Write the C-alpha cells for this entry.
Amino acid sequence: MEGEHKPGWRFRLHEIIYESNTFAGKAFDVGLLIAIFTSIIIVMLDSVHSLHIQYGDHFNTLEWVFTILFTIEYILRLVSIQKPSRYIFSPFGIIDLLALAPSWLAIFFPGAHSLLVLRALRLLRIFRIFKLAHFLFEIDFLKRALLNSIRKISIFLLTVLMLTVILGSVMYLVEQRENGFSNIPESIYWAIVTITTVGYGDISPVTPLGKFVASLVMLIGYAIIAVPTGIITHDFALARRKREKELYESCPNCGREGHDVDARFCKYCGSSLFR
Amino acid sequence: MEGEHKPGWRFRLHEIIYESNTFAGKAFDVGLLIAIFTSIIIVMLDSVHSLHIQYGDHFNTLEWVFTILFTIEYILRLVSIQKPSRYIFSPFGIIDLLALAPSWLAIFFPGAHSLLVLRALRLLRIFRIFKLAHFLFEIDFLKRALLNSIRKISIFLLTVLMLTVILGSVMYLVEQRENGFSNIPESIYWAIVTITTVGYGDISPVTPLGKFVASLVMLIGYAIIAVPTGIITHDFALARRKREKELYESCPNCGREGHDVDARFCKYCGSSLFR
Amino acid sequence: MEGEHKPGWRFRLHEIIYESNTFAGKAFDVGLLIAIFTSIIIVMLDSVHSLHIQYGDHFNTLEWVFTILFTIEYILRLVSIQKPSRYIFSPFGIIDLLALAPSWLAIFFPGAHSLLVLRALRLLRIFRIFKLAHFLFEIDFLKRALLNSIRKISIFLLTVLMLTVILGSVMYLVEQRENGFSNIPESIYWAIVTITTVGYGDISPVTPLGKFVASLVMLIGYAIIAVPTGIITHDFALARRKREKELYESCPNCGREGHDVDARFCKYCGSSLFR
Amino acid sequence: MEGEHKPGWRFRLHEIIYESNTFAGKAFDVGLLIAIFTSIIIVMLDSVHSLHIQYGDHFNTLEWVFTILFTIEYILRLVSIQKPSRYIFSPFGIIDLLALAPSWLAIFFPGAHSLLVLRALRLLRIFRIFKLAHFLFEIDFLKRALLNSIRKISIFLLTVLMLTVILGSVMYLVEQRENGFSNIPESIYWAIVTITTVGYGDISPVTPLGKFVASLVMLIGYAIIAVPTGIITHDFALARRKREKELYESCPNCGREGHDVDARFCKYCGSSLFR
C-alpha cells in the first residue's frame, strides 16, 4: 500500500521542486530565491569586522538554519527524482553540493591550526549565488548570446592577452625597475589594467618614453575594444534572422518551412507558395 | 457673467501651460526652462563654501524668488486643468511637488537641531532638473531606445551583479584584509569598480595572486561590456524595421510588402500602388 | 600685357594651392602638411621647461620662420581666389587666421605686464593642427558618420549630463564634505568621472553608503555607454543601405535609379527592369 | 643514391614542419606551442628579482636548452623548404630570427658595459609569443575583421590624436604648471589617458576651470568611443554578406541570386538550381 502511495508523493514533490507551472512550484521557487539571497547577505555582513564582533553569534545561528534548510532541499531533490545520479552530476547538482559542503566540512575538520582555512571554506558558501543561475539562465536570450559568441570572444581575449604580454615586456624595458614595473608579470598586469581601460593608477609610467608607449597602449585598447562588441552585435542579428526565417509559413506542397520573406516558390520542391 | 468668462480663461491658460503650439505656449516653456536652469545653478553655487559665505544672502533671496515662482506655476497648473488629481499624481506632478516641498518645509520646521537635514531637503530642489524631462522625453527616439531594451539590460545587469558578488568574494579570500579588501561588501565594491572599467585605484590588489585574479576580472569585464551594446544596437535596428513596415502599405494587386517610401509601382508585379 | 598674364598666373596658383590633382598641387599639400607638423612639434618641445632653457632661442627663430611661411601661404590663398571674402569667412579661412594671429599679436602688444598672457597666445599656435582638418575631413566617411549622428548623440549627452547632476547631488548629500565631495559642482565632476568610466580616483567614496551609491552610478554608466554605440552603428548601416540602393542600374524605360536588389519592375513607371 | 633519398626526406620534413594534416605534423605544432609557452614563462619568472636570485642558474640553463631547440627548428625550416629565402624574409621567418638573435648575440658581445642592454636583448625573446600567431591567425575570422577595418580605424585614431593635442594644449593653458600639467606633451598624455577612459589619476585637474574642461573631454571621449565599434560591427555585417553572396550561385533559369545554402529550387522562378 505504501509502495502504491510513494510514486504519487514523489511525483508531486518533483512537480513542486523541479517544475514551476503549479502554484506550489512557484511558491517553492520564490521561497528558495529569498532563502538564497538572505543567506548570501548574512555571509556578507558577517565578513564586516565590526558587525562580526557584535552579531557574530546570531549570524552563526542563522547560517546553520540555512545550511540545514538547503541540506533538506538537497535531500528532497535526490528523493523526488527517478535517477538521482542525473541530478548529482548535473551542473546545478554540483553547485548545490558545493554550496553546502563548506558548512559541514567545518564541523568534521575543526582543528585549531586550520581556523583560517575553515573561515575560507565558510566563505565559499557565498557561491550559493550560483543557485540564482537556476532562474536567470532559463531566460533564453542570455544563454543564446553567450553560447553563440563564446568561441570568438575567446580567440579575441587570447589575442588581447598576447598583446598585453608583448606590451608589458616593452614597458619593463622602457621604464626603470624603480617606477613600479618591477618585473615582467607586474608589467603585464599593468598592460591589462591599461588596455581594458580600468586604469587603477597603482602603477603608471614616469619617464617620457614610458608615457609615450603607454599612450600607444591606450589608443590600441581604445580601438580594439570595439571588436567584441562587433562580434556580439553581429551574432545577435544572425540569431534573430535565423529565428525569423523559421517564422514564415510552410510550403503548401511539401510542408517544409524556412522560406525567405520575399520567396514566391518553395526552395525545396519548387512549387508555388501562393495559392 | 463671470461664470461664462472662466472656462475661456481656463482654456487659454491650459493652452499656454500644457501645450506648446501657440507663441505664448512656447514662450512659457522657454521661460520655465531658463528659470529651472538658473535655480539649479544657484543651488550648486550656494553649495560652494567660499561663495556661500560671500553671497549666501543673495542666493537665499533668489532661491525664495524661484520657490514662489514655481509655487505660482504649480497652482496655475492645478487651476487650468479639468481634473487636478490627474496632474497631482502624474510623474511630473509628483516631481514638481518634490521640487517645491523642501523650501516650504524649511519654514514650518525650523528647529535648530535639524538645520543640516533642512539643507539636504533644500538640495532636493535640484531635482527640478527632472522638469527638463518634459522637454527631452518628448523626443521619440530616446524613449523608444530605453523602453525597448530596459528588460534585457536589467537581466544583463543582474548577471553582472552576480558575477561581481562571486569575484568580490574570491578577492576577499585571495587578498589580505590589510590590502583594502577589508570585507565582502568592500570587495564587491572593488569588483564593480573594476568590471565597469572605472578603476579608481582606492582599492587595488597587492599580492601577485590578487593581481592575477584582478587581471581575469578585467578581461571578463572587457569581454562582456559588449553585451549591452549588442542588445541596444540590435533593438535600434528592430525598432526601425518595425516602423518602416508600418509606414508602407502592401501592393493592392499581389499583396506583397516592402516597398520604398517613394515607390509608385509594385516592384514585384509592376501594378500601381495607388488606387 | 601684364593684365593679360595675371589671370593665367592666378589660375595656376589656384590650382596648386586649392586643388591637388596636379603634381605641383600634391607637392604643395605634402609640404604644407610637413610644415604644420613641424611647427606643432616645436611649440610642444618649447613648452618643456628644460628644453626651453637650452634651445629656447632656436625654437623662437624656427617659430618665426613658420609664422612667415604661413603668412605668405595665407596671402597667396587670398590673391589666387576670385572672391577672397569667400575664403576669409570659410571655416578653414578662420582657422588659418587664428593659427597666424597669436605670433603677430605678440609683437604689437608686448607690454611687460602681459608676458604670461602672451605666452598663452603663443601657445594658441598649436591650433595649427586644425589645418590638418583640410586633409582629414575630405574623407567622406568620417564626415558622414559625425554629421549623421551628431543630433542624437547631443540628446544622449544632455541626458547623461542631467543624470550626473542628479547623481552628483545625491553623493554630496551622502558623503561628508571631508571626503572630497566638497560642493555640488565637485560632486558632479566626480559623477562625470565615474559614469564615463574614467575613474581618476582623485575623489572616491569613503562611507559604505557612498560606495553603494557609487556602485549604482557605475552600473548605470556601464549600461548606458551602449546607447551612443547603438546610435552610430545603426546610422552606419542606414547610410550604407541608402548608398547601396543608388548603385543598382537605372530603369530602361524611364531611366530612374534607386531600385532595390530584388526589384523586377521599375517602382516609378512600372515597366520591367529586365529586357 | 643519396641525391635520390634527399627529396623524399626533405618532403616528409616539410610536411611535418609546415603542414599540420598528418599526425606527425600536428604533434610538431603542439610540441612547438608548449616549448614557446614554457620559454616565455621562464623569461617572465627570471625577471622577478627574488626568483632570479634563487633559481637564476636553472633559468639560464633552461633558456639555453630552448635557444638550441629553436635554433634546430630554424635550421630544419631552412633545410626542408625549396627556396629558403622565401621563409627567411617572410614575417614569421623574421620573427623566428628575432626570437633567436638575443641569446646568441649575448655570447659574442659580452662586454661588461653592455650587460644591461644584453638583458634587454634577452627579453626580446619574449617575442617568441609572436610565433603563436602561426596558430591564431589561421582563424579566418580575426584576420578579416582586422584587415577590413584597419584603414577606417586609423583615420579614427588620427582624429582622436588631433583632438587630444588640442585638448591637451587647452588644459596646459588652463591648469597651472604646478598641477602636473608641466608641459604640452605631458598634457597630451593626460588627454589620451582621459579620452580613452583609462584615467590613472597620476595627473588630474585641480582648478575648477580645469575640472570643467576635463569633464568636457570625458564626455567627448564617452561619445566618440562609439565610432570604432560602429565601424567594426558594420564591417562584420558587410564581410558576412559578401561571403554569403560568393557562396550561393545564381539561378540558371532567371539568373537571380540570393538563394539560401539549402535551397534546391529558385525562390523567384521555381526552376531547379542544379543541372
